Hints:
Layout: E1 5-9, H1 10-24, H2 29-50, H3 60-66, E2 72-77, E3 80-87, E4 90-95, E5 98-99, H4 102-113, H5 117-129, H6 133-147, E6 161-165, H7 166-171
Antiparallel strand pairs: 1-6, 2-3, 3-4, 4-5
Helix pairs in contact: 1-2, 1-5, 1-6, 2-4
Amino acid sequence: xxxxxxxxxxxxxxxLWAAVVAERMGFDWDEAVSLGRAVxxxxxxxxxxxxxxxxPAEGGAKQARKKKRGEEFWVEVCGRAVPAVSTPDGVRAVxxxxxxxxxxxxxxxxxxxxxxxxxxxxxxxxxASAFAPEDLETRAYGLYERFRPEIxxxxxxxxxxxxxxxxxxxxxxxxx
Length: 176
């Protein structure tokens, strides 16, 4: 196992955790990692708006009605409603009008976690497997808030790295 503490931004941590949660809920890994990437993106977008970094999309109903997608449905992961579609490769989260490719989401995780990805995924799987899928879904975001890296509050924390303690993360399974 790699180092027990990883210095990392929160977004990839939430991406991986949401993917592990989705996998525990019954999605295969490629589906789960697409959903996880969307959860982290939706979280970042909401936080960015709260901090005044992003403006709400303009255009209103007229612009929204011009958008077309296939049969879209919603999947709840870590308390977030994620837009998704069925593709020939399985369920994929949607960003804009495009499915989120699982290979791109995996490359993102690999680039952020590096050699620690397997260790982080194993620790998260240990935690996720301590809960029945329906219990995990209701508790997933609260668990994330307990183990996520500590960063400065407000704008100072935007994009900042903190320490992810894999031993603490896995130890939360004892509380299940």
